[in-house]
Amino acid sequence: MRVRGDPRAQVVRIGARLDAGTSARVRTRLHDAVDSGEGDLILDLSKLEMIDATGLGVLVGTHRRAISVERRLVLRGVPPRIMRILAVTRLNRVLPVEASEVAVA
Question: Could you tell me how far CA 54 lies from the centroid of its own chain?
């Protein structure tokens, strides 16, 4: 996971897995990014291959934390498989997804 700063937004690239094994580390880094930045927090999910319920919880928790400090969490580069999971769980209605990057299959 890499964090890149920008005056208007921060971009965080998520690795291939966001699951029970990686969520504690990712959650800590995402919360640090929310607390230390300004503007949108953009999560680049283009490399994400696998997400489970714990990973979805990390996304929702980070979204709530961002709202609490008047920031916005935005998902970028969501792979079709992950987008289907977001749609089935209806999280695509809660978590903003960049329209230009969405590939729904």
Answer: 13
